[in-house]
């Protein structure tokens, strides 16, 4: 198992500051997720950890060994899954995987065994002689995932594995990642969707050019326990709306002032007080119901409070 330490990582492209003073310890054998909206430095940070991009300042240590000073040695223990498959269309699956394995100087017998194991595991065994250009997008991502795992690397880095993959493929890859974590692999995955890292990540870092906050999976779960109350009603007068906002400052309202959404304090909270308040003010309530908070709503909420 491998421990990763980021020491004051900063990166800019020209005058554009992408990352600023990132300090982070990723425990050996854990899955650490980095989430954030597009353009906030997630991919750049992952590529720095992989040794593909050099930071302007700082260093990455693998079990105390400097990536700057020992890049070739450290990269042998890293498996990198890019956002796009980046395979050779005119080669078949087996040819692609043998080619990329040769770049790592892996023994051919070992590679053949790993290809057989993973193509069987990911239901690609019957397709190994097919050219990549003939494969579905989901199959191409599976091949890219196998490429990432060749040589049984200690560290697995994944860039937006959920970006454009069909749901069945995504669930299959997530299942394999859970098993790899159980086998002691250190995993770093970046995503802008909290739904993918749910039940996978041990901790979640929220990135907006800086590391805004880090939550454990339990802390994220507890935040997610609070449902939303959605209320349909007739249009609310402005004076009534002001009073309701005083009663519940986090109230959200649509443009027509006919649909309200508020966050409840915890599961099974008594929402009668708010509904009663609306009725007492003369607001005609048509219907109301609880809905779970979405991962994306939760993400915005965490960053607002960070």
> What is the first-to-last residue Cα distance?
31 Å
Contiguous helical run count: 11
Shape: elongated
Provide the residue-averaged pLDDT.
Answer: 89
Number of strands: 14
> Into which percentage range does the β-strand content fall?
25-35%
Helices and strands, in order, run as: EEEHEEHEHHHEHEHEEHEHEEHEH
CATH class membership of the largest domain? Alpha Beta
Would you write up a description of this structure?
The longest helix is centred in the middle third of the chain and has 16 residues, at 167-182. This protein folds into 2 domains: 4-223, Rossmann fold; 225-305, Alpha-Beta Plaits. It is of the alpha/beta class. Helices cover 36% and strands 27% of the residues. The mean pLDDT is 89. A hairpin with a 2-residue loop joins strand 1 (4-13) and strand 2 (16-26). It is elongated, with a radius of gyration of 24 Å. Strands 6-7-8-3-9-10 form a 6-stranded mixed sheet, sandwiched between helices. Strands 2-1-4-5 form a 4-stranded antiparallel sheet, covered by helices on one side. The chain is built from 11 helices and 14 strands.
Looking at this protein, list some descriptive labels:
about 300 residues; alpha/beta; Rossmann fold; Alpha-Beta Plaits; 2 domains; six-stranded mixed β-sheet; four-stranded antiparallel β-sheet; about 35% helix; elongated
């Amino acid at each position: 198992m491998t421990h990763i330490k980021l020491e004051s990582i900063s990166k800019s492209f020209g005058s554009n500051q992408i990352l600023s003073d990132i300090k982070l310890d990723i425990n050996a054998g854990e899955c650490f997720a980095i989430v954030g909206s597009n353009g906030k430095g997630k991919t750049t940070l992952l590529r720095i950890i992989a040794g593909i991009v050099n930071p302007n300042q700082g260093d990455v240590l693998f079990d105390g060994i400097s990536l700057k000073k020992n890049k070739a040695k450290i990269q042998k223990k890293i498996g990198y899954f890019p956002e796009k498959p980046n395979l050779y269309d005119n080669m078949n699956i087996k040819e692609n995987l043998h080619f990329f394995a040769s770049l790592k100087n892996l023994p051919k017998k070992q590679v053949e065994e790993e290809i057989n194991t993973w193509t069987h595991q990911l239901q690609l065994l019957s397709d190994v002689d097919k050219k990549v250009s003939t494969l579905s997008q989901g199959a191409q991502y599976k091949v890219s995932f196998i490429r990432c795992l060749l040589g049984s690397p200690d560290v697995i880095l994944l860039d937006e594995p959920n970006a454009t993959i069909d749901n069945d493929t995504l669930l299959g890859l997530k299942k394999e990642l859970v098993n790899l974590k159980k086998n002691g692999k250190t995993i770093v995955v970046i995503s802008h969707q909290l739904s993918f890292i749910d039940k996978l990540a041990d901790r979640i870092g929220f990135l907006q050019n800086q590391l805004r906050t880090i939550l454990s999976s339990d802390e994220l779960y507890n935040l997610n326990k609070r449902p939303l109350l959605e209320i349909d009603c007739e249009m609310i007068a402005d004076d009534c709306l002001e009073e309701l906002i005083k009663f519940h400052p986090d109230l959200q309202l649509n443009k027509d002032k006919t649909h309200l959404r508020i966050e409840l304090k915890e599961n099974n909270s008594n929402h009668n007080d708010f509904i009663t308040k609306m009725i007492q003010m003369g607001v005609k309530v048509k219907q109301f119901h609880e809905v779970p908070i979405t991962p994306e709503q939760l993400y915005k909420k965490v960053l607002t409070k960070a």
